[in-house]
Structure formats: structure tokens, C-alpha cells
Amino acid sequence: EVQLVQSGGGLVQPGGSLRLSCAASGLTISGYWMTWVRQAPGKGLEWVANIKPDGSERFYVDSVKGRFTISRDNAKNSVYLQMNSLRAEDTAVYYCARDHGDWGQGTLVTVSS
Amino acid sequence: DIVMTQSPLSLPVTPGEPASISCRSSQSLLYSDGYEYLDWYLQKPGQSPQVLIYFGSNRASGVPNRFSGSGSGTDFTLKISRVEAEDVGLYYCMQTLQTPYTFGQGTKLEIK
What we know:
The structure holds 2 protein chains of 2 kinds.
Chain A: E1 3-7, E2 10-12, E3 18-25, E4 34-39, E5 45-51, E6 58-60, E7 68-73, E8 78-83, E9 92-98, E10 107-111
Chain B: E1 4-7, E2 10-13, E3 19-25, E4 38-43, E5 50-54, E6 58-59, E7 67-72, E8 75-80, E9 89-95, E10 102-103, E11 107-111
Parallel strand pairs in B: 2-11
Antiparallel strand pairs in B: 1-3, 3-8, 4-5, 4-9, 5-6, 7-8, 9-10, 9-11
């Protein structure tokens, strides 16, 4: 059974930082693009970032460019999202996902003073 | 950015009846490899989204065969041949042709 198990997240003040992790089991991520998607409370889905299988290319939605960094460690079968300079509008449930496939359970990030 | 437009946004269905959701993109999702870069997801209440259909018409592993995807270019359709109670939730289309990937607004399927 494929599982993407997420960790990290929580409450952070505006301007603060958080790192989200996503560990895969039952799946070797090295062959796949990996993605982060978020969902603000009561809202739809928003793609945030993705990363090429070998990590050589990364793409971001404009609203997080320069603040968020997606990375991966294929040896640890894991993907990460480093979030800096967090804003209230970044408050959302964040999901990691394999392109065209499985999703993690989601982790809530709340940015508030 | 590619704009994705779904219709309807609300879909009340009687169990056993068919259902259909439309998704239109602001530009063609056909890539030079011959694939349509359009996925369908279902987010059941309180759960993470799960993939139903990828590359326009390929049913994901474990997805019941009452779900089917069709279409090409800019017009796509998700069909459920006979709706069951467990199919309630929000359905999203998503284009993965170019970044930023973009989603439709979501279609809420409910049981009459």
C-alpha cells in the first residue's frame, strides 16, 4: 500500500518559518515528479510547487516564489517544503502528492499572531 | 496561466442514476507526446483528494469502473455511470500541462 506520511505544520506567527516533510512508503519517489498543493479553509485546491525526479528543476506558484523552497531526498524517499516569511494568506492544509497519483493526509499550517 | 472551468458547480443525483461533470481549459491540454494533461480528483468529506482519472481517460488503480474520463483539447468530461452514496464529495479537474498547475473550482456531488 502506498502511503505519503506528512509531518510538520502548526501555528506560526507572521514572518515566521516552517518546514513540512512528506515520507513515502510503498512507493519509490525517485521516478516521479512530486508536488505540494494547499487548500485554504473552505476553499478549493491550489497548486504550490513541484520538483523534478532528480531535483534539477523546481517550479512555484507566483504567490510563494522567493519564500518557499521545495526539495527532495530520494535516498530518504522524502519531499520537503521550507516555508519562510509566512503570511496570513498562507494559512491552509498542505498536501504532498505524486504527480497524477497518491496524496498525503494533509497538514494544517496556521499563520496568526 | 491556464484557466480551468467546471460545470455544474452543484450536482444533486439520485442513487443509481448517471452523472456527468464538464471541465474546460483556456488552452489545449494536448502535449506533443499525445497525452492530454488533465486529471480528475475526488475529495470526500474530511479526506485528502484521491486521483480518479489521469491523462484524460486513464482510470487510476482501485477506482471503480463506473468512473470514466473522456475528452480532448479543451473539453473534458467525467462520467459516473451509476452514482452510489460513497461518491459524494467535491470533484476537481486539474491541468498538468504547464506550471502553475491549475484546478477547476470544484463540483459538489450530493445525493438526492
